[in-house]
Amino acid sequence: MPLTLIIANKAYSSWSFRPWILMRHFGIAFEDITLPLGQADTTEIFLRYSPTGKCPVLHADDLVIWDSLAIIEYIAEKFPDLAVWPRDEKARAEARSFAAEMHSGFLRTRGQLPMNMRRKPAAKELTPEVVAEVARLEEAFARMRGRFGQDGPFLAGAFSAVDAMFAPIVNRFHIYEVPVSAPTRDYMEAMMALPAWRDWEQGAAQESWFIEKYEAV
Ligand SMILES: N[C@@H](CCC(=O)N[C@@H](CS)C(=O)NCC(=O)O)C(=O)O
């Protein structure tokens, strides 16, 4: 079945990055269409593809799946031979908990440290709210790595959906030079070395849209 993933700018769209890196990492064939954020007709164009007017949205024949996490769950169901979620029941349950926590939380970090795949790393002063969220993120990473990460450098060992959900956080920690522990840095390096990460980054570098509100941070 042909799959088309409609995404917003690779440079800025953290929600688009999540299913894209997952699908690319697992070698799932799909076409992608990039729609630019921040244009006068952005909402009108997004609404042609997605009922919420937001990206990412996956089209699979006549099926429309909007929202990053719903897309990831669809891929996990559609490709049961791939360990999209960890195979181990406990790892899977915690991975889903952290993925859900990411999906609904870390609002200060998301708002104050926007993802930007083209930004050169430079330190930014963090508010106390962001510092608290960073501590929680590092706690989550350490817990997953400590309990389930023995067989590889990712949160549950091998790369899985939970890593895809945190990929934009890795970019934020990197580009804003957020002070992190050595194990968190090791995790970040493993993520940023993924061929799928590099492909996305290259795509972002080739984009010509520059949107002030993301670049001015
Ligand atoms: N909860 C949604 C959030 C999707 C979302 O907010 N996408 C942004 C791009 S990262 C968007 O499409 N914004 C449209 C706009 O700003 O006009 C998900 O997980 O997919």
Distance between the ends: 41 Å
Structural class: alpha+beta
Mean pLDDT equals 97
**CATH structural class of the largest domain:** Mainly Alpha
Order of helices and strands: EHEHEEHHHHHHHH
* Major sheet strand order: 2-1-3-4
Could you name the ranges where pLDDT drops below 50 across 5 or more consecutive residues?
Answer: none
Can you give a write-up of this model?
This protein has 217 residues and is of the alpha+beta class. The chain has two domains: 3-82, 3-Layer(aba) Sandwich (Glutaredoxin); 89-198, Glutathione S-transferase Yfyf (Class Pi), Chain A, domain 2 (Up-down Bundle). 53% of the residues lie in helices and 9% in strands. It is built from ten helices and four strands; from the N terminus they run βαβαββαααααααα. The protein has helices spanning 14-25, 42-49, 68-78, 89-104, 107-112, 128-148, 161-175, 182-192, 195-206, 212-215; strands at 3-8, 31-35, 57-60, 63-66. A four-stranded mixed beta sheet has the order 2-1-3-4, with helices on both faces. Strand 3 (57-60) and strand 4 form a beta hairpin. Helix 1 (14-25) packs across helix 9, helix 4 (89-104) packs antiparallel against helix 6 (128-148) and helix 4 (89-104) packs across helix 7 (161-175). The chain starts with a strand and ends with a helix. Residues 8, 13-16, 37, 42-43, 46, 54-56, 67-69 line the site of glutathione. The site of glutathione (GSH) has 15 residues, from helix 1, helix 2 and helix 3.
